[in-house]
Design a protein that fits this description.
Layout: H1 5-26, H2 35-41, H3 45-69, H4 72-103
Helix pairs in contact: 1-3, 1-4, 2-3, 3-4
Length: about 100
Amino acid sequence: MSILPVNVAMLGIGLLDLLSTIFWLHNGCAIEVNPVMSAVLKHGLVLFIAVKLSTLVAYIAVMEWYRRYKNPVFARVVGIITVAAYLTIYAVSFCGVNHAYFLG
C-alpha cells in the first residue's frame, strides 16, 4: 500500500528541519523558536529528537489512516495545507531569528 506523496514530503521536510536544527544548535548559530520544543530541548537533545520524530510519525500515521478509511481527498488537501504552513512558518521563523545575519 502506498503512502500519500504529500506525507512523504512532510516526512522529508520534518527530517530536514530536525537535522538542520540540530546542526545549527550544535554550532551555536540558532535557537529553537517553537516554545514547546524549546522547553523540551531544555531536557536534552535525545528527548528533543524523540518528541520531534514522534509527533511527525503520529501526524503521518493519522493522515494515512484518515486517507484510507475516511476521506482521501480531504486528507490530501489537509496535507498540502500542512506542508505549505510548515514551510512558511519555518521560513518566517528562520528569517526572524537570523535577520541580523542577512542584513549584515
